[in-house]
């Protein structure tokens, strides 16, 4: 039988009930579709608020510092790209000057390109002396880029818009900042065409440059980076690498009994290549090197006190007066203090430490309370190193490049006088100034006299053209790039720590020398190897 007794029973009027309608599929049910649509909108909104970075999102509200600048890393540091409107660290005055010049450029009649200065622009130093020293180094580099921008905007086209790119402490956030720069390189409004900077030859520096030049195709001009293994397509380097510095410094030792003190910590390109360069200059019969292993931090590594006491005793026992040092400034200070405090009849209490350009920041590791001890040590220990520049280097030089360097230095001194706390002695301002001018010169060469904005690949492949008649007349001397983008026979400025260690003068200029043994001639071109 079909049906159900209850279902088929007539109602009071004697009529059978209507059968129940067939169920409607959910995708045809208007009410279900409305609910689904509302749910999807809610889910999308929740996802946007939780995961997005646009206006109104949780990240926008809690992590945004400014346009293209976000809190990143364990310290929630503001990293990203600023046109001067947002101030990184303690760069108020120079950031305001950059913002003003950028407004003049973007409102002007000339086409313009953007150049970025990429360096860590804040510090986590807690020691007041070190914090002040690092702050000064950062400011000098930013000032150098700004003064170069002004210099290049005095004439020529395209004009230059300068932005500051902060990759965070230790350049840890370089990848995220590089993505911001990549967007600017693709933007017809920004037209980013080069990145300058990088002031430490460390692992993150190498990774950042490889990412920018290799993955993103953005041309780079290095600042005071001297590690010999930092050579790659798209990168131009305007300072003498470690092997060239060692070539010049090798003439300093008085005898073959030159010692080598080296840091064995892995991952530091500057130390590794400086050590290798010094070892090449030591005779085969030289004594085995003295080694230590630093932590890689910015402190003095108190645990190494015993190591340096032993190293100083071994140096004294050997009778060596000259010591090559392949390490960073914190440990350089420890070595000098140990050599200066231990009596050593064999050397008549006299030593000379010879090292690379990294020594330029050793002053930040000399506490004010230890100045007397430091001066006493320098009275016995001469510290000479290869600097990438010095404001007095060309004053009396008769080298072919000297006249051009004096002219550019005169202009830079005049321009720097208008900036608060500008200082040329540590060479950082000079180096970034020359690096920025190198970048802009190459961009303009590819721009056909300002008729167009060159492509990134044109800029990246044009570094080798900056030689001979197209050489850069820098404050640090002529800059003549070889086919690999490295400065050929770049002048090395030998300096000595002033034993009087005065507030306004901590260095004595010694001389200028060239890795090839002779100054550059006007052809300024590397020979065939």
UniProtKB/TrEMBL annotation:
Keyword annotations from UniProtKB, A to Z: Membrane, Transmembrane, Transmembrane helix
Ranges of compositional bias, category Basic and acidic residues: 1-14
Ranges that cross the membrane: 32-55
Natural source organism: Streptomyces cavernicola
Region of interest (Disordered), ranges: 1-20, 278-304
Name of the protein in its database record: Leucine-binding protein domain-containing protein
Membrane is among the record's keywords: yes
InterPro entries for the chain: Peripla_BP_I (IPR028082)
Keyword field contains Transport: no
